[in-house]
Amino acid sequence: MRLLKTAFWAIVAIALVTMGLANRDIVRLRVLPEALSDWLGVAPDLQLPQFLVILAGVALGLFIGFIWEWIREIPERAQLRATQRELERLRREVARQREAAAPKDGVLAAIEAPVVPARRA
């Protein structure tokens, strides 16, 4: 499995280096359209290698996707917390019921003690 993971990342690294070497040309990124920048008197342009623009676009897309997914999962996380609270409340109630139903004699209590399964984390 470790070999597969190393091979995968090696292929990704080779692909990124190849793309970087093939797209070394400098490109100009215009933040504003030319007419608007002339009207405002500001021309915030960036000159970057093309592969950085491509990689920044991919990284921005991944970031937006992660944020979108995190927001989409809010109801599922809330339901999970509510279910965990309910489970803990029910475990306490079962423990209280077992304690109330346990025999009062110490010897009988030791013999008839209910087996409680181990909790999973």
Radius of gyration equals 31 Å
Shape: elongated
Q: Helical content, roughly?
A: over 70%
**Overall pLDDT:** 86
Ends distance: 27 Å
Strand order of the largest sheet: 1-2
Instruction: Please give the largest β-sheet.
Output: 2 strands, antiparallel
What number of domains? Answer: 2
- H-E string: HEHEHHH
Question: How many beta-strand elements?
Answer: 2
Question: What is the structural class?
Answer: mainly alpha
Poorly predicted runs: none
Number of helices: 5
Beta-strand residue fraction: 5-15%
Explain what the structure shows.
The chain has 121 residues and is mainly alpha-helical. The protein folds into two domains: 2-51, no CATH class; 75-111. 70% of the residues lie in helices and 8% in strands. It has five helices and two strands, in the order αβαβααα. The chain has helices at 2-22, 34-40, 50-72, 74-101, 106-111; strands at residues 26-30, 45-49. It has a two-stranded antiparallel ribbon with strand order 1-2. This is LapA family protein. InterPro entries: LapA_dom (IPR010445). Residues 46-94 form the Lipopolysaccharide assembly protein A domain.
Key features?
121 residues; two-stranded antiparallel sheet; 2 strands; 70% helix; LapA_dom; transmembrane helix; LapA family protein
